[in-house]
Amino acid sequence: MGRFCGWNDVMSSSCECSQLFAIAPTGIVGLGGMLVALTKPGRERTPGLLAAALLVLALAVVIWLEGVYLPSSIQTTSIFGAGFLTDPFTWFFTVAILAGALITVLLSLGQLTTLGIASSPEFYGLLLMTTAAAIVLVGAGELITLFIGLEALSMGLYCLCGSAISSRRSVEGALKYFILGSFSSAFFLYGIAVLYGVGGSTELAVIADQLPNANRALASLGIGLVLVGVFFKLGAVPFHFWAPDVYQGAPTPVTAYMASVVKAAAVAMAMRLLWTGFGDPVVVTWWSGFTWMVALLTMIGGNIIAVRQRNVKRMLAYSSIAHVGYMTAALLAPSGQYGGGPAILFYVIVYSLATFGAFAVSMVITGSKVDTADADDIGLFSGLGKRNPALAATMSLFLLAMAGLPPGVVGLVGKFYLLSAVVNTHYLGLAIIAGLCSAVSCYYYLRVVMAVYFQAPANDAAQAIPVSASIRLVLAAMVGLSLLIGLAPSPLYNRAQAVLLTLSR
To answer: What's the rounded Cα separation, in Å, for the pair 110 and 260?
Structure first.
């Protein structure tokens, strides 16, 4: 018979109870999502407040149980037969995902009717269950769990993207996402089957040991098919065709959620696969060329097409694609030797801060024009500096951070870390192209800033701009964190270095 564990045992990563406690945040969010979805429709804010409370509780639990995820040794622990890894890497992304989901809830409080979303219980329930799937995705230690997490995440996103059922753009974007996502899932699943045939297991650790001695043609085929699914979820070129329409059509809080939380989960999946499952030096040569080409096309394609956009939401979608290109380039720089890991983790956080802030301001400016022809047009931002100086300064800060220009120093520091890692890996040409693409991005970011401060407002844009208390809270938090990390980047970067110890082989 087993014994009961004391509290000191629970906080030790070797205790069976601690391994069950490690999935408590996922259970709180997942089961809580079902509870929220079943609440009686009534006041719009009630399900949102309940969802926010559950996310705060899950965040408190994962921070409280930090010792379970951060063992004294650098050995990764796992539960459910290596299905879920309880390591510092999982802890870091779990905190980031839960925080991002909480910000999404705050952005949507009191806004669902304006956004065209009829049922708040279903919306917040889906958001929580999708968040639970994202946590499973970042902690997966074998391919079947990874696929389940990916599909659960995708199914929730299809529904969230089409949740504004009265909007033609929302429904159309969700349908496109579903159809293309189904094809990418098929590629991913077939790649899993090939890798299982080659390695005899779906566990990433076992696959990593078997791949160097496997048939190169078959192993490369399996890796390539899996990477197609990964790059589709990232929105990398040439697997990006769904992103602009989905980002533009989805309700703005969902778009912000996809561009930050979902992007973070997909980046974590890519890092876990490439550096743990496919991280042997021999195997790296099999996928590095493909990844190099995807990074190049993504940086160039995202920035060039973004230059032509007048719709701010669509411009941010292509901008998001370009930022994926920078992070994909850093995937070629394994953490232990070249510093790509901490650079990516740092960039994920600072990019998410700017993304949430920019989309929050965009949602405020759009107001009642959610489904009109000129929704999110750059003209709506004209004269914002005179109409609402605080919103203007906030939007400018976030756009300049994405461009890597002062006073958005946090974005500049993030790009410096990424490009330094790429240069250290001896991909100097790719780093130069990334720098040039970043310079191109200054054009479309500064075009919005010019409209904000140097263009007269349209006749119908001269009215006052109401900002809810929850959105004010989000904007204040994003501005404060962006400035703080920009002035003192070392604590976040050092923490990112520490959590990467168990990921690199």
So the answer is: 22
Q: 349-392: per-residue pLDDT in tens?
A: 999 999 999 999 998 888 655 566 566 788 888 888 888 899 99
d(CA 315, CA 323): 12
- Tokens of residue 210, six digits: 């078997």
394: left (phi over 0), alpha (psi -120 to 50) or beta: alpha
70 near 91, Cβ under 8 Å? yes
Backbone phi and psi for residue 85, each to the nearest 5 degrees, phi listed first: -95, 125
Cα separation, 274 vs 328, in Å, equals: 11
Distances (CA, A) of 90 to 335, 360, 503: 16, 28, 10
Distance CA 264, CA 268 (A): 6
74 pLDDT above the threshold of 50: no
Three-state DSSP string of 447-488? HHHHHHHHCCCCHHHCCCCCCCHHHHHHHHHHHHHHHHHHHC
The percent of the chain in helix, strand and coil, each rounded to the nearest 5, is: 75, 0, 25
Instruction: Give, in degrees to the nearest 5, the angle at Cα 186 between 135 and 169.
Output: 75
Task: Return the H-helix or E-strand segment holding 77.
Answer: strand 77-79
CA angle 383, 388, 392 (to 5 degrees): 70
Task: Give the Cβ contact number of residue 350 at 10 Å.
Answer: 26
Give pLDDT, residue 498.
Answer: 84
From 60, 74, 78, 75, select the one nearest 18 (Cα to Cα): 78
What are the helix (H) ranges across 79-167? 88-108, 112-115, 120-139, 143-161
Q: State whether residue 138 is helix, strand or coil.
A: helix
Q: 203 forms bridges with which residues in the sheet?
A: 142
Token reading at 178: 């579903």
Pairing between β-strand 84-86 and β-strand 77-79 as defined by DSSP bridges: antiparallel
Does this model's pTM top 0.70? My answer is yes
CA distances from residue 164 to 33, 148, 260, 321 in whole angstroms, order as listed: 19, 26, 20, 24
Tokens linked to 479? 């501005």
**Backbone phi and psi for residue 203, each to the nearest 5 degrees, phi listed first:** -75, 135
3-state SS of 269-334 is HHHHHHHHHCCCHHHHHHHHHHHHHHHHHHHHHHHHHHCCCCEHHHHHHHHHHHHHHHHHHHCCCC
Per-residue pLDDT for 75 more than 60? Answer: no
